[in-house]
Amino acid sequence: MGKKTALETEISREIYMGQIPVLTNERIYDFMGVTLTSSGMGIASWCYVQGAWLASVLPLYLTLFVSIVPMLLMGLILLIITTIPTKYGVDNSLMQKAVFGTKLAKIIFLVMILSAVGWFSINAQIFATSLTNICAALGTEVSANLIPIIILVYLAIAFLITTRGPQFVKYSMYIMVPGIVFVGIAMLIKAATSTTWEELNSVELLSAGFFSSQKIAFLAMCEGMFVFATAWYASLGQFSRLTNSRRSAYWGQIIGFILIMEFFIIIGAITGALMAQMGVYSDNPTDWMIAVAGPIWGILSLVAIALANVSTQISGLYAWIIATKSYWNKLNITGIAVVWTLYCFLLSVWNGVWTYYSTFIAVIGATASVATAILLADYFVVRKGKFSLGAIYELPGRTAYKYTNGHNLFAMIIFILGSALYLYIYDPINFASRNDILMLLTPSGVSMIVSFAAYAVLSKVPFINKYLLADRKEIEEYQKRIVA
Amino acid sequence: MMSSVHEEINKEIIRRVEIIESPDYEFVSVMTRADKIAITILSVVLTVSMIIVYNTLV
């Protein structure tokens, strides 16, 4: 009896934190649930870093425009992918086996997740530096040697909450997210009313000199926001597989992953511009809050950062666990959580992602944007939303997604060429356009359009079509057998 | 114990794949026509606004 109970518990855990498909009647998120959980993941210090970066390149009126429009546009396109994991109750990292093949999908997954954790390392660093700033403002100097320990404690809190399961994650978001948004609104009002619109727009742009013209700077910042949206690639599907309708999953994540984040990017942009008035580049709102508004606002800002970053780390870690379990199903959930937490810790202590932020953005762009385009073409144009689930799980006799030794060579070629095209257009080291005509559509825009079109059009060539759609026969035969 | 857990999990996956792939399975509700129209209109408006703003810059 005890053994059976333990098995049942393990299977139940695997449904919500592992690879087992979630049936329609088992979904735990409605529109509100998925909105709050994805908001909890979206709101974090990375928004402030992005906002401050935009505000150091463009005048504030343009920064506000770029904070909202390009990311929303990319979000509307990207999140269409989530309707497939919602339909089948299976995470996207597993569904993409249909596109890339059973082995290549694993490599793509690793590339995406190893780079995606970089965002989380920025959050950990900002949290630690904010805490030391506040302590200094209150008269207590914290040694820089303690920063790794602060980061470790922060990651440990997230670890403990995450490993309690998705219901616990969901309810912690119900408490944290409204609190963060409330503090965010207070911070925005405080920052916006401390100066005038004219003053904010006349601030010296500390990083504008990196770009040859305002037009190129505008396109580069649009690109930065496109990438900010496609960076969600590694997290597509983990929440939508638990959501009770495709509408709720799509629009809930548009709010959580896109609109709520934009609100916090704007806070980062305004406080960044305010610090730039003093000639200081800052991507941490506590700097301005302490310098101008005083320690009370600084503490409030720190509370917002702490809540936001911990909630993001919880959701992120949860998403990585599910994605990792999709490929390595024998691994223990706690073990996976330990590995990803340690990796995040090492990236945070290294400090490289924050230092080479623009280059980091370009790496995400060159990979996630192209992979997004290929997925959209395959899921909706080639496969028309219909998959062989048995082949996804590699059940006996279900080999449709093995392609060539586990690699879809066609998808691989498009992926490599699309990524190369991205780097041909934009030089991420020197912030320079290599082709001004193609740059008009932004590097992500061009590489996505070309990859999507190439995949969709070439898939009509008979031998490629036969290669890609080996699953049709399998689906037909399997359904006949079930009916019989 | 671990191997029996994995066996049970695999059995559960097979059972669920059969359920989901059966013609009678009811998937979660789809995106409506209104959703698709809203996504299209929003995307066009956002793209046009980016072009307009770009053209105002020097």
Give me some keywords for this one.
heterodimer; A: 484 residues; mainly alpha; 1% strand; B: 58 residues; 2 helices; elongated
Walk me through this protein's architecture:
The complex is a heterodimer of chains A (484) and B (58). Chain A is built from 24 helices and two strands. With 484 residues, chain A is mainly alpha-helical. In chain A, helix 8 packs across helix 16, helix 8 runs antiparallel to helix 18 and helix 12 packs across helix 18 (357-382). Chain A is globular, with a radius of gyration of 23 Å. By secondary structure, chain B is mostly helical. Chain B has helices at residues 2-21, 33-56. The radius of gyration of chain B is 24 Å and the shape is elongated. The chains are: A mainly alpha (484), B mainly alpha (58). At the A-B interface, helix 1, helix 4, helix 5, helix 12 and helix 13 of A face helix 1 and helix 2 of B.
The biggest chain-chain interface is:
A-B, 53 and 37 residues
The chain-level mean pLDDT of chain B equals 91
Name the assembly state. Answer: heterodimer
Helix content of chain A: over 70%
The average pLDDT of chain A is 88
Low-confidence stretches of chain A: none
